Amino acid sequence: MEVVEIDGLRLAFRRAGSGPAVVFVHGGAEDGRAWTPQLDALSDEFTVIAWDEPGAGGSGDVPAGFALSDYADRLAGLIRTLDISPCALVGLSWGVTVILELYRRHPSLARSLVLADGYAGWRGSLGPAEADARLAGLRDQPEDGFDPTLPGLFAGSPPAEFLPLLETMAADVRRHSMLTALTAMARADLTDVLDTIRVPTQLIWGALDARSPLSVAHEFARRIRGAGLAVVPDCGHVSNLENPQMFNDILRGFLRRHAD
Questions:
Q1: Residue 169 near residue 31, CB atoms below 8 Å
Q2: pTM > 0.90
Q3: Judging by DSSP bridges, how do beta strands 201-206 and 87-92 pair with one another?
């Protein structure tokens, strides 16, 4: 773990490898450890960096009033501090929402985008009623922990290989921070950003994703000029862990094609 301070907030991140820079942005109620199989596989060819967002993992707590724009600006600050722009940005789920907001505010930092099983905000991709219902469900989660096997995250049972990792991350979830991030996602509608993307973009989606269904992927593909869509069979919402080999092969191929 490495740590920097961005605008008064401690940010922790993992960095490995050498070569073109790739920044990984994790989903809600996770931290940078969620990208472990990707960091392990791709560090032979790329400089791979996975942040712990504010309020997650080794990073500092989110301040009062923290908003989606603040997540995006802190991520932009990390990229500038590490002097790696423009870089490839890889996000999953809530991480896609953060990347879209970063692209809205700091488009010059992105060389390419990989958007996996994500949303243009819950409000934008699922509609107000579903966004509000999901947020209410998260607020009903027990105070003493987050369920890492939330229904719909995986097509079947969580992969046994990664269950200890999921449980460890879940045990470290800070309830206030989780609700801050997911409230921001519930309120966000970034569909207008999709039409503005002008960098190479790869979409990766689990074929059986119940959290962000394939209809969302097809809307992304329709609105992002030139975007490719790769569907991972027999996978749910966390395709990078449910089938890491196929996810990594798709990711590596795309990154190689757009390394310059």
A1: yes
A2: yes
A3: unpaired
